[in-house]
Amino acid sequence: MNRLDKKVLFVLATPMQIVTALHIINCYNLKADMICLEDHLPKAKIYANRLSQLEILGEVKVVPSRGNQELLLQRYTEIFITNNIFLWNYQEQLMQSKSVISIFDEGSMCYLTRFIEECYRCCKWQNIYLYEPRLANFYGDARFIIKEIPKIQIENTVLLEQLNKVFEVNANEVLLSDDDTMHVFFSQPFEHALSVKAKLRRIFKIRQSHSNWEYVLDAHKKYQKDIIEKIHKTVLSLYRKFHPREKERVLNKNTIQWDYPWELYLLHHPHTKVVQYSLFSSVLTASFVLGNSYDITNYYLYPIVVKELIESGYTDALDNDLLIFFDRLVKAGKVIPVYSLEELERIIQHEV
Questions:
Q1: Is residue 174 part of a domain?
Q2: Whether the predicted pLDDT of 127 surpasses 80
């Protein structure tokens, strides 16, 4: 599809959005500008400079999502945004532009109904570009035009060269592991510390419902820690990739410390067998982006937490939208659910 006569805009809030934006531009031969959101995208100014150096884009600039700068959005036939804060803050300009507002794949969030509904309330009309559209919770909703993004192939040398420049990746980077199989845990940012009020309410067993949200966050942190320790006992070479928002980090030789998307590492090492563990990280959807030719096994561990939360009486804390999405992944064979620490231990012993 040749669309050189049209101009589009990509608004970028995460490193993975850079990957998909460049992929879409290459796939559809788009003439595009870019905005890097400085209050969301780490190293936004650095990435904006590197994107400009690719010489395939028009204007690349850095803008705050919570501001309201004049962006001259009427220049664009289509605006790609996957950041609801930007959508709401620039709602008036977006509506006045008469541009088609499109959401593009960012991982699990883009497949959840609540996120799409919020975007729809803001701008009403939009396309949604997804790597696996049929797995979205809202698939079949007549309000949306859902388009499928082609998988990223290792043979796409043009895109890979662009991504290597933007993220400063050495294409000849050695493997993290010398083992036949690489085990990686992708953690979530559960770092909540109970307030004094929450601690007192628990000790004296009074008005505990007032602190339920704190108890749930604290429970998530504990369960994730227990799961990681259980895996460590069997997989001594377990790697851990921290979530970008995690602040409490213990770094060692088995910590993955680069800040570029994990999918880009996999693209450079297509023959590596990888076993991925996470509660519900978007990395469990890596096969959406890369296809099924990669040897990736995904263990979905949130069912362990769900069971514990239900037994502790925190049923209201369950994210049903998220659970519905991952249930679809389970049925499609994309992830393997694990329901207890005992089951996890048996699985790991089989894997190693």
A1: no
A2: yes
CA angle 112, 116, 121 (to 5 degrees): 145
Residues 159, 187 within the same domain = no
Q: How far apart are CA 185 and CA 277, in angstroms?
A: 5
203 and 303 part of one domain: yes
CB atoms closer than 10 angstroms to residue 79: 25
Specify the residue for token string 């803050």.
Answer: 89
Q: Which of the four pLDDT bands, split at 50, 70 and 90, describes residue 219?
A: confident
Domain boundary among 132, 167, 202: 167
Task: Let me know whether 220 and 346 are in one domain.
Answer: yes
Q: Mean pLDDT across the stretch 55-71?
A: 93
- Domain shared by 202 and 322, yes or no: yes
Q: Is the pLDDT of residue 151 over 80?
A: yes
Describe the chain by its helix, strand, coil percentages, rounded to 5: 45, 15, 40
| pLDDT tens-place string over residues 166-200 | 999 986 765 566 567 889 999 988 766 777 776 77
pTM of the entire predicted model: 0.91
Give the span between the Cα atoms of 160 and 264, in whole angstroms. Answer: 8
231 token code pair:
């895996």
Does 2 map to a domain?
no
Token code pair at residue 347: 């699985």
Question: Is residue 26 included in any domain, yes or no?
Answer: yes
155 with 242, same domain: the answer is: no
Q: Which pLDDT belongs to residue 4?
A: 44
Supply the range of the domain harboring residue 33.
7-167
Distances (CA, A) of 17 to 35, 87, 105, 173: 11, 16, 7, 23
CA atoms of 267 and 256, how far apart (whole Å): 16
Residue 172 resides in a domain: no
Question: Largest Cα–Cα distance in the chain?
Answer: 69
Cα–Cα distances in angstroms (integers) from residue 329 to residues 108, 280, 323, in the given order: 11, 11, 10
The string of DSSP codes covering 180-210 is SEEEEEE---------HHHHHHHHHT-SGGG
